Amino acid sequence: MPRISGVPTRDAGLLVRLSYRFARKRYGAVPEPMTVCAHHRPLLWTYATHEMLAEKASRSLPVTVRELAVYRTAVRLGCSWCVDFGTMLQKHEGLDIDRLKDIDNYATSPRFTHQERLALAYADAMTDSPVSVTDEQVAELEREFGRKGVVELTYQIGLENMRARINSALDITDQGFTSGDACRVPVPADQPS
């Protein structure tokens, strides 16, 4: 249970209920970070708009490269919600989620391509504290993906760092998106906040 409980549907205003309905239709459940963020509606709209725009704008990289880098970031930061949701997103993209078991061995595992290894190493370097990205690493990524691809990869890894750190701070943990049928998790119980 998160440190701040989510806003139940019955206590949500009309626009929040509509956003819950949209999320439920899209994901099969309302993501718990969204219900927690609903306590601050202007930030909820900022969050939702930002996520949709970032998703639409991020089309330069191969989807496997982008999704694996984001997933790796979630794993490194220990965000069980992000790992759960990220696995579900990869499953819905038709990606091989079995290889996620080898994510900690990406550097030597034959299950990852050269491009994926570069992106995963970059995710590690960006997620280190302090950040350990090198000039050589960025130059190699630029040769592989171009400047637009490097910017997209950097942005997505940075965005996942933000998501994972927010979820960890608020103790928002896995919601069960990958257990059984992906995305069949109910809205938070209608309990008073």
Number of strands: 0
Strand portion:
under 5%
CATH architecture classification name of the largest domain: Up-down Bundle
Helix content: 55-70%
N-to-C SSE series?
HHHHHHH
Report the major sheet: none
Rg calculated over all Cα atoms:
17 Å
Uncertain runs are 182-193
The rounded distance between the terminal residues' Cα atoms is 12 Å
The top level CATH class name of the largest domain: Mainly Alpha
Report the total helices. Answer: 7
Anisotropy-based shape:
elongated
Let me know the CATH homologous superfamily of the largest domain. Answer: AhpD-like
Write down the oligomeric state: single chain
Our count of domains comes out at 2
Which structural class is indicated by helix and strand composition? mainly alpha
Indicate the CATH topology of the largest domain: AhpD-like
Mean pLDDT comes to 92
Protein name: Transposase
Domain Carboxymuconolactone decarboxylase-like: 54-124
Pfam families: CMD
GO molecular function: peroxiredoxin activity
How is this structure best summarized?
The chain has 193 residues and is mostly helical. It contains seven helices and no strands.
Describe the structure.
The protein has 193 residues and is an all-alpha fold. The chain has two domains: 11-57; 60-178, AhpD-like (Up-down Bundle). The protein is built from seven helices and no strands. The protein has helices at 14-27, 32-37, 41-57, 63-77, 80-92, 114-127, 135-169. The radius of gyration is 17 Å and the shape is elongated. It starts with 13 loop residues before the first helix and ends in a 24-residue tail after the last helix. Residues 182-193 have low confidence and may be disordered.
